[in-house]
């Protein structure tokens, strides 16, 4: 400024007065808020208590007292700028050619409100690993610490770009296109910023129904047959249903069967079937092949009865003994 003043002395007397007035001018900085909301901004206003035609330079340094300052904007005609980062800011005014600057303004320190990012996760019900076409599945988007707030939910899958739902539950019956990765996130109704996307949950959908298998064993000497049904996929997830007759009619506990879910004991001869079921509403497997118990009549698999064979053989032996005794007595009488 001394050089400018000396130049003015030699050129124009009035310029000297003008430059001295500038030297005494100081910029002032104010902010509409000292804290930047998450995802928001703060407006800074720089002003000089003098006539118009000022242009403004804007500076920032980190919140550390000894950090280096750097210019973020230069020569703006507007008194206002918008910032979204924390730090310490100041400004200055300048005008004329060559430019004469005011003193630096006061500093304003802006802090950033630390946003506690809520997280989303997906729960699956039922939580089966192996899912078959046509099964009913419920997915729920759960927001950590999200109780009491009004949330909207957004879902994304491998085959579906985006789906917005009011509730966090997504219930559907599976198809081949249901296979893939599922993501969700939530957003409070009055908030512009959603949570992060959840980690994916993967659904694998098998295209055909599983089929039950029925095994039959005779309990020796008891007159009962042991029927065992199983489904060759995650056995613990299935309940078993039992049927009898050419047209399958369900056997309920107490109807000539001691039911223990996977196994039953039966004494009545006939045609038996089984199948598995799980979920609500119940999703059924295909019926097993029918098994014919205690007889070789009709179709189906034959289950022989050693007990019956023994009874027949015993009766023949008894009859034979009686015949021999009768012949012996006739000879003795003669």
Could you describe the 3D structure shown?
By secondary structure, the chain is mainly β. The chain has 3 domains: 2-112, Sandwich (Immunoglobulin-like), CATH 2.60.40.10; 120-206, Immunoglobulins (Immunoglobulin-like, Sandwich), CATH 2.60.40.10; 213-303, Immunoglobulins (Immunoglobulin-like), CATH 2.60.40.10. The protein is 15% helix and 42% strand. The protein has helices spanning 2-11, 13-23, 306-333; strands at residues 27-31, 35-36, 42-48, 55-61, 69-76, 80-83, 87-95, 100-101, 108-112, 120-125, 131-132, 136-143, 151-157, 163-165, 169-173, 180-188, 201-203, 205-206, 213-219, 224-230, 239-244, 249-250, 257-260, 263-266, 270-278, 283-284, 291-293, 301-303. The strands form 7 sheets. Strands 2, 4, 5, 7, 8 and 9 form a 6-stranded mixed β-sheet that branches. Strands 21, 22, 25, 26, 27 and 28 form a 6-stranded mixed β-sheet that branches. β13 and β14 form a beta hairpin. The radius of gyration is 45 Å and the shape is rod-shaped. The model is unreliable at 8-23 and 296-315 (pLDDT under 50).
């Amino acid at each position: 400024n001394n050089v400018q003043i000396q130049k003015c002395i030699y050129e124009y007397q009035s310029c000297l007065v003008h430059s001295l007035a500038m030297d005494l001018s100081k910029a002032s900085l104010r902010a509409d808020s000292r804290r930047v909301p998450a995802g928001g901004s703060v407006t800074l206003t720089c002003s000089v208590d003098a006539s118009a035609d000022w242009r403004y330079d804007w500076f920032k340094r980190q919140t550390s007292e000894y950090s280096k300052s750097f210019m973020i904007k230069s020569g703006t005609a507007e008194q206002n700028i918008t910032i979204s980062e924390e730090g310490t800011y100041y400004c200055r005014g300048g005008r004329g050619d060559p430019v004469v600057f005011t003193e630096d303004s006061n500093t304003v320190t802006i802090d950033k409100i630390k946003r506690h990012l809520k997280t989303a996760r997906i729960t699956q019900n039922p939580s089966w690993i192996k899912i078959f076409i046509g099964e009913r599945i419920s997915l729920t988007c759960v927001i950590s610490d999200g109780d009491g707030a009004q949330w909207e939910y957004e879902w994304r899958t491998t085959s579906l770009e985006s789906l917005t739902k009011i509730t966090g539950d997504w219930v559907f019956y599976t198809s081949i296109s249901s296979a893939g990765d599922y993501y969700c996130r939530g957003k409070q109704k009055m908030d512009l910023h959603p949570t992060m996307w959840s980690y994916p949950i993967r659904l694998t959908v098998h295209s055909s129904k599983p089929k039950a298998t029925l095994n039959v064993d005779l309990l020796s000497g008891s007159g009962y047959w042991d029927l065992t049904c199983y489904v060759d996929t995650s056995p613990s997830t299935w309940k078993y249903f039992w049927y009898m007759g050419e047209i399958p009619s369900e056997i309920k506990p107490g109807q000539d069967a001691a039911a223990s879910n996977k196994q039953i004991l039966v004494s009545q001869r006939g045609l038996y079937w089984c199948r598995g079921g799980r979920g609500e509403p119940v999703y059924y497997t295909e019926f097993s092949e029918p098994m014919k118990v205690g007889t070789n009549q009709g179709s189906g698999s034959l289950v022989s009865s050693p007990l019956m064979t023994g009874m027949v053989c015993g009766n023949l032996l008894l009859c034979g003994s009686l015949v021999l005794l009768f012949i012996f007595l006739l000879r003795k009488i003669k």
